[in-house]
Amino acid sequence: MTIASLSRKNIQTLTPYQSARKLGGKGTIWLNANEYPRSPQFRLSGKDLNRYPEPQPQAVVRGYANYAGVAPENVLVTRGGDEGIELLIRAFCEPGRDAILFCPPTYGMYAVSAETADVACKTVPLTADFQLNLAEIKKRLAEVKVVFLCSPNNPTGNLLKRSDLLELLQITQGKAIVVVDEAYIEFCPEASLVNELKNYPHLAIIRTLSKAFALAGLRCGFVLANPPLIQTLSKVIAPYPIPVPSADIAEQALQADNIALVQTRTSEILANRQWLAQALADLAQVEKVYPSEANYLLIKCLDGEALFNALWAQGIILRDQHKALNLQNCIRITVGTQEENQKVVEAILALSRD
Ligand SMILES: *Cc1c(COP(=O)(O)O)cnc(C)c1O
Question: Which of these CATH numbers, 3.90.180.10, 3.40.640.10, 3.40.50.2300, 3.40.630.30, describes 58-255?
Answer without folding.
Answer: 3.40.640.10
